[in-house]
Design goal:
By secondary structure, the protein is an alpha/beta fold. It is built from 17 helices and 24 strands. Helix 13 crosses helix 14 and helix 14 (about 420-430) runs parallel beside helix 15. It is globular, with a radius of gyration of 24 Å.
Length: about 525
Protein backbone atom coordinates (compact mmCIF):
# COMPACT_ATOMS: atom_id res chain seq x y z
CA UNK A 1 0.00 0.00 0.00
CA UNK A 2 1.22 3.56 -0.64
CA UNK A 3 3.31 5.38 1.94
CA UNK A 4 1.56 8.29 3.65
CA UNK A 5 3.33 11.61 4.04
CA UNK A 6 3.46 12.34 7.76
CA UNK A 7 5.63 15.44 7.95
CA UNK A 8 4.55 17.80 10.73
CA UNK A 9 2.84 20.87 9.31
CA UNK A 10 2.18 22.93 12.44
CA UNK A 11 5.53 24.64 12.66
CA UNK A 12 5.47 24.18 16.45
CA UNK A 13 8.69 23.93 18.42
CA UNK A 14 9.91 20.45 19.29
CA UNK A 15 9.01 19.21 22.79
CA UNK A 16 11.02 16.71 24.76
CA UNK A 17 9.42 13.26 24.87
CA UNK A 18 10.38 9.68 25.60
CA UNK A 19 12.06 8.04 22.58
CA UNK A 20 9.23 5.52 22.09
CA UNK A 21 6.40 7.99 22.74
CA UNK A 22 4.40 8.44 19.55
CA UNK A 23 1.50 10.43 20.97
CA UNK A 24 1.04 12.23 24.30
CA UNK A 25 -2.08 13.96 25.58
CA UNK A 26 -1.51 16.28 28.53
CA UNK A 27 -4.30 17.67 30.73
CA UNK A 28 -6.76 17.17 27.89
CA UNK A 29 -10.14 18.76 28.63
CA UNK A 30 -13.29 18.89 26.52
CA UNK A 31 -16.45 20.69 27.56
CA UNK A 32 -19.81 20.55 25.84
CA UNK A 33 -22.75 22.71 26.97
CA UNK A 34 -23.49 21.52 30.50
CA UNK A 35 -21.15 18.52 30.25
CA UNK A 36 -17.48 17.97 31.10
CA UNK A 37 -16.71 15.14 28.68
CA UNK A 38 -12.97 15.05 29.54
CA UNK A 39 -11.23 16.60 32.54
CA UNK A 40 -7.41 16.90 32.73
CA UNK A 41 -6.78 13.54 31.06
CA UNK A 42 -3.19 12.39 30.48
CA UNK A 43 -2.67 9.64 27.93
CA UNK A 44 0.30 8.39 25.92
CA UNK A 45 0.73 5.95 23.08
CA UNK A 46 4.05 4.26 22.37
CA UNK A 47 5.35 3.05 19.06
CA UNK A 48 4.29 -0.51 18.28
CA UNK A 49 1.81 -0.92 21.15
CA UNK A 50 -1.91 -1.54 21.49
CA UNK A 51 -3.21 0.81 24.16
CA UNK A 52 -6.75 -0.11 25.19
CA UNK A 53 -9.26 2.53 26.32
CA UNK A 54 -11.72 1.04 28.80
CA UNK A 55 -14.75 2.60 30.45
CA UNK A 56 -18.49 2.89 30.53
CA UNK A 57 -20.48 4.70 27.85
CA UNK A 58 -20.15 8.38 28.66
CA UNK A 59 -16.76 7.89 30.34
CA UNK A 60 -15.04 9.98 27.65
CA UNK A 61 -13.52 7.31 25.38
CA UNK A 62 -15.27 8.46 22.21
CA UNK A 63 -14.49 12.10 22.95
CA UNK A 64 -10.79 11.32 23.43
CA UNK A 65 -10.43 9.44 20.16
CA UNK A 66 -12.51 12.07 18.35
CA UNK A 67 -9.97 14.70 19.41
CA UNK A 68 -7.02 12.57 18.33
CA UNK A 69 -8.73 11.85 14.99
CA UNK A 70 -9.50 15.53 14.34
CA UNK A 71 -13.29 15.27 14.70
CA UNK A 72 -13.36 17.46 17.83
CA UNK A 73 -11.04 20.15 19.17
CA UNK A 74 -10.10 20.15 22.87
CA UNK A 75 -11.24 22.93 25.18
CA UNK A 76 -7.86 22.84 26.91
CA UNK A 77 -4.75 20.72 27.07
CA UNK A 78 -1.93 19.73 24.74
CA UNK A 79 -1.49 17.04 22.10
CA UNK A 80 2.09 16.10 21.31
CA UNK A 81 2.79 13.96 18.25
CA UNK A 82 6.29 12.68 17.54
CA UNK A 83 7.71 15.23 19.96
CA UNK A 84 5.92 18.28 18.60
CA UNK A 85 2.72 20.01 19.62
CA UNK A 86 -0.04 19.64 17.03
CA UNK A 87 -3.51 21.09 16.47
CA UNK A 88 -6.01 19.35 14.17
CA UNK A 89 -8.90 21.28 12.66
CA UNK A 90 -10.37 18.33 10.78
CA UNK A 91 -10.17 14.61 10.10
CA UNK A 92 -8.22 15.50 6.97
CA UNK A 93 -5.57 17.25 9.10
CA UNK A 94 -5.17 14.18 11.32
CA UNK A 95 -4.88 11.88 8.31
CA UNK A 96 -2.12 14.04 6.87
CA UNK A 97 -0.16 13.25 10.01
CA UNK A 98 -0.81 9.54 9.59
CA UNK A 99 -3.69 9.16 12.09
CA UNK A 100 -6.60 6.99 10.87
CA UNK A 101 -9.70 5.99 12.82
CA UNK A 102 -12.31 3.24 12.47
CA UNK A 103 -15.30 4.51 14.42
CA UNK A 104 -18.15 2.41 15.81
CA UNK A 105 -20.59 4.50 13.77
CA UNK A 106 -19.65 4.14 10.12
CA UNK A 107 -18.68 7.07 7.91
CA UNK A 108 -19.61 5.42 4.62
CA UNK A 109 -21.75 6.82 1.81
CA UNK A 110 -24.34 4.08 1.10
CA UNK A 111 -25.01 5.21 -2.48
CA UNK A 112 -21.34 4.83 -3.46
CA UNK A 113 -19.45 1.64 -4.21
CA UNK A 114 -16.87 -0.03 -2.00
CA UNK A 115 -13.99 1.33 -4.07
CA UNK A 116 -15.46 4.84 -4.17
CA UNK A 117 -15.79 4.81 -0.38
CA UNK A 118 -12.22 3.54 0.03
CA UNK A 119 -10.84 6.59 -1.79
CA UNK A 120 -13.43 9.14 -0.66
CA UNK A 121 -11.52 12.38 -0.11
CA UNK A 122 -8.39 10.89 -1.68
CA UNK A 123 -9.65 10.25 -5.21
CA UNK A 124 -7.21 9.20 -7.92
CA UNK A 125 -7.41 11.72 -10.76
CA UNK A 126 -5.89 12.23 -14.18
CA UNK A 127 -5.98 15.67 -15.83
CA UNK A 128 -8.51 16.77 -13.26
CA UNK A 129 -10.86 13.86 -13.92
CA UNK A 130 -11.53 10.79 -11.79
CA UNK A 131 -9.36 7.90 -12.99
CA UNK A 132 -11.78 5.04 -12.41
CA UNK A 133 -9.47 2.41 -13.87
CA UNK A 134 -6.62 3.25 -11.44
CA UNK A 135 -9.06 3.61 -8.54
CA UNK A 136 -10.45 0.15 -9.23
CA UNK A 137 -6.97 -1.33 -9.59
CA UNK A 138 -5.80 0.05 -6.23
CA UNK A 139 -9.04 -0.96 -4.52
CA UNK A 140 -8.58 -4.56 -5.71
CA UNK A 141 -5.00 -4.54 -4.41
CA UNK A 142 -6.08 -3.29 -0.98
CA UNK A 143 -8.93 -5.78 -0.62
CA UNK A 144 -6.77 -8.70 -1.76
CA UNK A 145 -3.96 -7.72 0.62
CA UNK A 146 -6.40 -7.53 3.53
CA UNK A 147 -8.07 -10.79 2.41
CA UNK A 148 -11.55 -9.37 2.93
CA UNK A 149 -14.52 -10.90 1.04
CA UNK A 150 -15.52 -7.62 -0.62
CA UNK A 151 -16.45 -6.75 -4.20
CA UNK A 152 -14.99 -3.32 -5.14
CA UNK A 153 -17.87 -2.27 -7.38
CA UNK A 154 -20.70 -3.32 -5.05
CA UNK A 155 -22.77 -0.54 -3.51
CA UNK A 156 -22.27 -0.13 0.23
CA UNK A 157 -26.05 0.08 0.75
CA UNK A 158 -26.28 -3.57 -0.32
CA UNK A 159 -23.63 -4.81 2.14
CA UNK A 160 -24.22 -6.46 5.49
CA UNK A 161 -23.11 -4.61 8.61
CA UNK A 162 -20.08 -6.92 8.89
CA UNK A 163 -19.08 -6.14 5.30
CA UNK A 164 -19.50 -2.41 5.95
CA UNK A 165 -17.24 -2.79 8.98
CA UNK A 166 -14.62 -4.37 6.72
CA UNK A 167 -14.85 -1.41 4.33
CA UNK A 168 -14.19 0.95 7.25
CA UNK A 169 -11.17 -1.12 8.30
CA UNK A 170 -9.90 -1.22 4.71
CA UNK A 171 -10.09 2.60 4.58
CA UNK A 172 -7.83 2.79 7.63
CA UNK A 173 -5.28 0.46 6.03
CA UNK A 174 -5.45 2.17 2.63
CA UNK A 175 -2.28 4.06 3.54
CA UNK A 176 0.52 3.22 5.95
CA UNK A 177 -0.53 5.11 9.08
CA UNK A 178 1.46 5.95 12.21
CA UNK A 179 -1.55 5.80 14.54
CA UNK A 180 -4.61 3.57 14.15
CA UNK A 181 -7.75 3.99 16.23
CA UNK A 182 -10.36 1.23 16.53
CA UNK A 183 -13.70 1.71 18.29
CA UNK A 184 -15.38 -1.66 18.98
CA UNK A 185 -14.28 -2.97 15.55
CA UNK A 186 -15.25 -6.63 16.06
CA UNK A 187 -18.88 -6.11 17.13
CA UNK A 188 -20.17 -7.22 13.70
CA UNK A 189 -17.35 -9.53 12.62
CA UNK A 190 -17.24 -13.32 12.53
CA UNK A 191 -14.47 -15.28 14.23
CA UNK A 192 -12.56 -15.59 10.94
CA UNK A 193 -12.87 -11.88 10.18
CA UNK A 194 -11.81 -10.99 13.72
CA UNK A 195 -8.73 -13.22 13.40
CA UNK A 196 -7.83 -11.45 10.17
CA UNK A 197 -8.20 -8.02 11.81
CA UNK A 198 -5.96 -9.07 14.71
CA UNK A 199 -3.36 -10.36 12.25
CA UNK A 200 -3.40 -6.93 10.54
CA UNK A 201 -3.01 -5.25 13.93
CA UNK A 202 -0.01 -7.44 14.72
CA UNK A 203 1.47 -6.56 11.33
CA UNK A 204 0.97 -2.85 12.05
CA UNK A 205 2.59 -3.19 15.48
CA UNK A 206 5.63 -4.80 13.90
CA UNK A 207 5.96 -1.63 11.78
CA UNK A 208 5.93 0.57 14.94
CA UNK A 209 2.35 1.76 14.37
CA UNK A 210 0.66 2.81 17.61
CA UNK A 211 -2.89 1.55 18.09
CA UNK A 212 -5.64 2.93 20.32
CA UNK A 213 -8.28 0.23 20.78
CA UNK A 214 -11.69 0.53 22.45
CA UNK A 215 -13.46 -2.66 23.52
CA UNK A 216 -15.62 -4.04 26.33
CA UNK A 217 -14.43 -7.60 25.70
CA UNK A 218 -11.88 -9.00 28.12
CA UNK A 219 -10.83 -11.71 25.68
CA UNK A 220 -9.76 -9.10 23.14
CA UNK A 221 -7.87 -7.10 25.75
CA UNK A 222 -5.88 -10.14 26.84
CA UNK A 223 -5.26 -11.20 23.25
CA UNK A 224 -3.89 -8.01 21.69
CA UNK A 225 -3.53 -5.35 24.40
CA UNK A 226 -0.29 -4.06 25.96
CA UNK A 227 -1.61 -1.39 28.32
CA UNK A 228 -5.06 -0.28 29.47
CA UNK A 229 -6.23 3.18 30.47
CA UNK A 230 -9.51 3.24 32.39
CA UNK A 231 -11.75 6.31 32.19
CA UNK A 232 -14.65 7.12 34.48
CA UNK A 233 -16.87 10.22 34.19
CA UNK A 234 -14.40 11.95 31.89
CA UNK A 235 -11.41 11.40 34.16
CA UNK A 236 -8.51 8.97 34.00
CA UNK A 237 -8.72 6.43 36.81
CA UNK A 238 -5.64 4.31 36.05
CA UNK A 239 -3.23 3.03 33.43
CA UNK A 240 -1.92 -0.51 33.88
CA UNK A 241 -0.26 -3.31 31.97
CA UNK A 242 -2.54 -5.99 30.56
CA UNK A 243 -0.74 -8.66 32.58
CA UNK A 244 -1.79 -6.81 35.76
CA UNK A 245 -5.44 -6.64 34.69
CA UNK A 246 -8.26 -9.08 35.22
CA UNK A 247 -12.00 -8.67 34.78
CA UNK A 248 -12.72 -8.10 38.47
CA UNK A 249 -10.15 -5.32 38.78
CA UNK A 250 -11.15 -3.58 35.54
CA UNK A 251 -14.84 -3.62 36.39
CA UNK A 252 -14.15 -2.18 39.82
CA UNK A 253 -11.92 0.55 38.36
CA UNK A 254 -14.49 1.36 35.69
CA UNK A 255 -17.64 1.38 37.81
CA UNK A 256 -16.73 1.18 41.48
CA UNK A 257 -18.65 -2.12 41.58
CA UNK A 258 -17.32 -5.63 42.13
CA UNK A 259 -18.26 -8.14 39.43
CA UNK A 260 -20.59 -10.10 41.73
CA UNK A 261 -22.89 -7.07 41.69
CA UNK A 262 -23.30 -7.16 37.90
CA UNK A 263 -25.35 -10.33 37.41
CA UNK A 264 -28.58 -10.63 39.43
CA UNK A 265 -29.89 -13.75 41.11
CA UNK A 266 -32.92 -14.93 39.15
CA UNK A 267 -35.82 -17.08 40.38
CA UNK A 268 -36.71 -19.33 37.46
CA UNK A 269 -40.21 -20.82 37.52
CA UNK A 270 -40.62 -22.67 34.21
CA UNK A 271 -44.26 -23.03 33.27
CA UNK A 272 -46.18 -23.80 30.10
CA UNK A 273 -44.38 -23.97 26.79
CA UNK A 274 -44.49 -20.77 24.74
CA UNK A 275 -42.17 -21.35 21.78
CA UNK A 276 -41.15 -24.52 19.99
CA UNK A 277 -39.07 -25.04 16.85
CA UNK A 278 -39.44 -28.44 15.21
CA UNK A 279 -36.67 -29.39 12.75
CA UNK A 280 -36.49 -25.87 11.31
CA UNK A 281 -34.29 -25.19 8.28
CA UNK A 282 -33.91 -21.76 6.70
CA UNK A 283 -33.30 -20.73 3.11
CA UNK A 284 -29.66 -21.26 2.22
CA UNK A 285 -29.36 -23.67 5.15
CA UNK A 286 -28.08 -20.86 7.37
CA UNK A 287 -29.56 -23.02 10.12
CA UNK A 288 -30.74 -26.55 9.52
CA UNK A 289 -32.80 -29.08 11.45
CA UNK A 290 -33.07 -26.91 14.59
CA UNK A 291 -35.37 -28.02 17.42
CA UNK A 292 -35.68 -26.09 20.69
CA UNK A 293 -38.27 -24.71 23.09
CA UNK A 294 -38.84 -21.89 25.60
CA UNK A 295 -41.26 -21.88 28.54
CA UNK A 296 -42.79 -19.14 30.63
CA UNK A 297 -40.70 -18.06 33.62
CA UNK A 298 -37.31 -19.12 32.25
CA UNK A 299 -34.36 -17.65 30.38
CA UNK A 300 -33.10 -19.89 27.62
CA UNK A 301 -29.76 -19.04 26.04
CA UNK A 302 -28.45 -19.60 22.53
CA UNK A 303 -24.65 -19.45 22.60
CA UNK A 304 -22.25 -19.49 19.71
CA UNK A 305 -19.72 -17.48 17.79
CA UNK A 306 -20.70 -14.72 15.36
CA UNK A 307 -21.87 -16.44 12.19
CA UNK A 308 -22.96 -19.66 13.93
CA UNK A 309 -26.60 -19.09 12.98
CA UNK A 310 -27.87 -18.19 16.42
CA UNK A 311 -29.24 -14.78 15.41
CA UNK A 312 -31.14 -16.30 12.49
CA UNK A 313 -33.13 -18.41 14.94
CA UNK A 314 -34.53 -15.30 16.64
CA UNK A 315 -35.20 -13.61 13.31
CA UNK A 316 -37.03 -16.69 11.99
CA UNK A 317 -39.29 -16.76 15.05
CA UNK A 318 -40.20 -13.10 14.42
CA UNK A 319 -41.00 -13.64 10.74
CA UNK A 320 -37.83 -12.09 9.35
CA UNK A 321 -36.36 -15.22 7.72
CA UNK A 322 -37.80 -17.71 5.22
CA UNK A 323 -38.42 -21.18 6.69
CA UNK A 324 -38.05 -23.86 4.01
CA UNK A 325 -38.85 -26.85 6.23
CA UNK A 326 -39.95 -27.59 9.76
CA UNK A 327 -42.46 -25.80 11.99
CA UNK A 328 -42.48 -22.93 14.47
CA UNK A 329 -45.11 -23.10 17.21
CA UNK A 330 -46.06 -20.23 19.52
CA UNK A 331 -48.68 -20.38 22.27
CA UNK A 332 -49.91 -23.71 20.96
CA UNK A 333 -50.38 -22.58 17.35
CA UNK A 334 -48.33 -23.05 14.20
CA UNK A 335 -46.90 -19.64 13.24
CA UNK A 336 -44.49 -20.73 10.48
CA UNK A 337 -44.46 -18.04 7.79
CA UNK A 338 -46.22 -15.42 9.93
CA UNK A 339 -45.42 -11.74 9.42
CA UNK A 340 -43.77 -9.45 11.95
CA UNK A 341 -47.09 -7.74 12.68
CA UNK A 342 -48.75 -11.08 13.29
CA UNK A 343 -46.00 -12.14 15.71
CA UNK A 344 -46.23 -8.83 17.57
CA UNK A 345 -49.97 -9.24 17.90
CA UNK A 346 -49.46 -12.80 19.15
CA UNK A 347 -47.20 -11.53 21.96
CA UNK A 348 -43.65 -12.16 20.70
CA UNK A 349 -41.09 -9.34 20.57
CA UNK A 350 -37.64 -9.56 18.97
CA UNK A 351 -34.95 -7.06 20.02
CA UNK A 352 -32.37 -7.04 17.16
CA UNK A 353 -28.61 -6.91 17.59
CA UNK A 354 -28.25 -3.95 15.21
CA UNK A 355 -29.98 -1.12 17.03
CA UNK A 356 -29.08 1.53 14.44
CA UNK A 357 -30.23 -0.15 11.23
CA UNK A 358 -32.98 -2.46 12.52
CA UNK A 359 -34.02 -1.35 16.00
CA UNK A 360 -34.33 2.42 16.05
CA UNK A 361 -35.13 5.42 13.86
CA UNK A 362 -31.91 7.36 14.44
CA UNK A 363 -33.19 10.71 13.12
CA UNK A 364 -36.34 10.63 15.26
CA UNK A 365 -36.81 11.30 18.95
CA UNK A 366 -37.10 9.04 21.97
CA UNK A 367 -40.89 9.38 22.22
CA UNK A 368 -41.53 8.22 18.67
CA UNK A 369 -39.09 5.32 18.96
CA UNK A 370 -40.57 4.01 22.19
CA UNK A 371 -44.13 4.18 20.88
CA UNK A 372 -43.42 2.81 17.40
CA UNK A 373 -44.13 -0.87 18.18
CA UNK A 374 -47.39 -0.11 20.00
CA UNK A 375 -49.12 2.35 17.66
CA UNK A 376 -51.76 -0.27 16.82
CA UNK A 377 -52.78 -0.80 20.45
CA UNK A 378 -55.64 0.84 22.31
CA UNK A 379 -53.17 2.49 24.65
CA UNK A 380 -51.90 4.79 21.89
CA UNK A 381 -54.60 4.93 19.22
CA UNK A 382 -58.30 5.71 19.13
CA UNK A 383 -60.19 5.02 15.87
CA UNK A 384 -56.94 5.39 13.92
CA UNK A 385 -55.84 8.62 15.62
CA UNK A 386 -52.78 8.89 17.85
CA UNK A 387 -53.48 9.62 21.51
CA UNK A 388 -50.63 12.10 21.92
CA UNK A 389 -51.04 12.73 25.65
CA UNK A 390 -51.03 9.00 26.34
CA UNK A 391 -47.99 8.60 24.09
CA UNK A 392 -46.10 11.30 26.00
CA UNK A 393 -47.00 9.81 29.39
CA UNK A 394 -46.12 6.23 28.45
CA UNK A 395 -42.86 7.22 26.74
CA UNK A 396 -41.79 9.27 29.76
CA UNK A 397 -42.68 6.47 32.17
CA UNK A 398 -40.65 3.92 30.20
CA UNK A 399 -37.72 6.31 29.66
CA UNK A 400 -37.59 6.85 33.43
CA UNK A 401 -37.81 3.10 34.02
CA UNK A 402 -34.75 2.41 31.84
CA UNK A 403 -32.94 5.41 33.40
CA UNK A 404 -32.41 7.24 30.11
CA UNK A 405 -29.87 10.07 30.39
CA UNK A 406 -30.58 12.81 29.55
CA UNK A 407 -34.33 12.38 29.93
CA UNK A 408 -35.24 14.29 26.75
CA UNK A 409 -38.11 12.65 24.85
CA UNK A 410 -37.69 14.81 21.72
CA UNK A 411 -33.94 14.41 21.34
CA UNK A 412 -32.92 12.47 18.20
CA UNK A 413 -31.47 9.02 18.87
CA UNK A 414 -28.30 9.95 16.97
CA UNK A 415 -27.46 12.35 19.81
CA UNK A 416 -27.42 9.64 22.52
CA UNK A 417 -24.60 7.30 23.49
CA UNK A 418 -24.77 3.66 22.43
CA UNK A 419 -25.79 2.61 25.93
CA UNK A 420 -28.71 5.05 26.00
CA UNK A 421 -29.77 3.99 22.51
CA UNK A 422 -29.91 0.41 23.79
CA UNK A 423 -32.04 1.53 26.74
CA UNK A 424 -34.56 3.08 24.35
CA UNK A 425 -34.62 -0.15 22.35
CA UNK A 426 -35.44 -2.05 25.56
CA UNK A 427 -38.12 0.52 26.47
CA UNK A 428 -39.67 -0.02 23.05
CA UNK A 429 -39.97 -3.74 23.82
CA UNK A 430 -41.71 -2.98 27.12
CA UNK A 431 -44.44 -0.89 25.47
CA UNK A 432 -46.96 -3.66 24.73
CA UNK A 433 -48.24 -6.96 26.13
CA UNK A 434 -45.55 -9.54 25.41
CA UNK A 435 -45.30 -13.13 26.62
CA UNK A 436 -41.97 -14.00 24.95
CA UNK A 437 -38.99 -11.69 24.54
CA UNK A 438 -36.12 -12.56 22.20
CA UNK A 439 -33.00 -10.53 23.00
CA UNK A 440 -30.32 -10.76 20.29
CA UNK A 441 -26.94 -9.54 21.64
CA UNK A 442 -28.69 -7.10 24.03
CA UNK A 443 -25.47 -5.64 25.48
CA UNK A 444 -23.25 -5.37 22.39
CA UNK A 445 -21.14 -2.22 22.55
CA UNK A 446 -22.56 -0.98 25.88
CA UNK A 447 -20.84 -0.29 29.18
CA UNK A 448 -21.08 -2.21 32.43
CA UNK A 449 -23.56 0.21 33.99
CA UNK A 450 -25.98 -0.26 31.09
CA UNK A 451 -25.39 -4.02 31.24
CA UNK A 452 -26.46 -4.06 34.89
CA UNK A 453 -29.67 -2.21 33.99
CA UNK A 454 -30.45 -4.53 31.06
CA UNK A 455 -29.81 -7.65 33.15
CA UNK A 456 -32.21 -6.24 35.73
CA UNK A 457 -34.93 -5.86 33.09
CA UNK A 458 -34.37 -9.45 31.89
CA UNK A 459 -34.62 -10.74 35.48
CA UNK A 460 -37.85 -8.80 36.10
CA UNK A 461 -39.45 -10.07 32.89
CA UNK A 462 -38.58 -13.68 33.70
CA UNK A 463 -39.81 -13.47 37.29
CA UNK A 464 -43.05 -11.83 36.09
CA UNK A 465 -43.77 -14.98 34.05
CA UNK A 466 -42.53 -14.05 30.57
CA UNK A 467 -40.34 -16.35 28.55
CA UNK A 468 -36.93 -15.02 27.50
CA UNK A 469 -34.74 -16.29 24.67
CA UNK A 470 -31.27 -14.76 25.13
CA UNK A 471 -29.03 -14.93 22.05
CA UNK A 472 -25.49 -13.94 22.97
CA UNK A 473 -21.83 -14.20 22.03
CA UNK A 474 -20.95 -12.96 25.52
CA UNK A 475 -20.19 -16.11 27.51
CA UNK A 476 -20.62 -14.56 31.01
CA UNK A 477 -24.19 -13.57 30.05
CA UNK A 478 -24.97 -17.15 29.12
CA UNK A 479 -23.34 -18.55 32.27
CA UNK A 480 -24.96 -16.14 34.74
CA UNK A 481 -28.41 -15.49 33.29
CA UNK A 482 -29.77 -18.69 31.74
CA UNK A 483 -31.27 -21.83 33.26
CA UNK A 484 -31.06 -23.69 29.93
CA UNK A 485 -28.71 -23.05 27.02
CA UNK A 486 -28.45 -24.32 23.46
CA UNK A 487 -25.03 -24.14 21.74
CA UNK A 488 -24.82 -23.44 18.00
CA UNK A 489 -22.00 -24.30 15.61
CA UNK A 490 -22.13 -23.48 11.89
CA UNK A 491 -25.89 -23.61 11.62
CA UNK A 492 -26.28 -26.75 13.71
CA UNK A 493 -27.51 -27.27 17.25
CA UNK A 494 -24.59 -28.87 19.07
CA UNK A 495 -25.87 -29.26 22.62
CA UNK A 496 -28.56 -28.43 25.16
CA UNK A 497 -27.17 -27.69 28.63
CA UNK A 498 -29.18 -27.27 31.83
CA UNK A 499 -28.43 -26.11 35.37
CA UNK A 500 -24.95 -27.11 36.55
CA UNK A 501 -24.00 -28.17 33.01
CA UNK A 502 -23.87 -24.49 31.98
CA UNK A 503 -20.20 -23.87 32.68
CA UNK A 504 -17.45 -22.18 30.70
CA UNK A 505 -15.87 -25.50 29.74
CA UNK A 506 -19.28 -27.04 29.07
CA UNK A 507 -20.19 -24.33 26.57
CA UNK A 508 -16.79 -23.70 24.96
CA UNK A 509 -16.11 -27.32 24.04
CA UNK A 510 -19.05 -27.12 21.61
CA UNK A 511 -17.97 -23.80 20.03
CA UNK A 512 -15.29 -24.95 17.66
CA UNK A 513 -14.36 -28.25 16.04
CA UNK A 514 -17.16 -30.66 15.45
CA UNK A 515 -17.11 -33.67 17.70
CA UNK A 516 -16.75 -37.10 16.19
CA UNK A 517 -19.99 -39.02 15.91
Amino acid sequence: MPELETDNQSGSASINAEPDDLLSLRSLTKQFPGVDALVDVDFDLKRGEVHVLFGENGAGKSTLISIVAGVERPTAGTMIYKGEEVHFNSVYDARQYGISAVFQEFSLVPQLTVEENLFLGAEITSSGLLNKRELHKHAVEIIEELNFPLTPQQRVANLSRAEQQMVEIAKAFRTTPSVLIFDEPTASLTERETDRLFALIEQARAQDVGIIYITHRMGEIQRIGDRITVLRDGRKVATLDVKEANEDRLVELMTGRVIDQIFPEIRYQPGEQLLELRSVTLAGRVIHDISLNVRRGEIVGIAGLVGSGKSEIGRACFGLEDVVSGEIWFNGKIVTGSTVNEMLSAGLFYVPSDRRDEGLMMVRGVRENISLAALDTGMLSNYGFLRRKAEDAIARQLAEKVELRPLDLERDMDHFSGGNQQKVLIAKALNREVSLFIFDEPTVGVDVGTRVAIYGFVKDLCEAGAGVLLISSDLPEILHLTNRTYVMYRGELRAELTGDEITQDGVLRHFFEKEAA
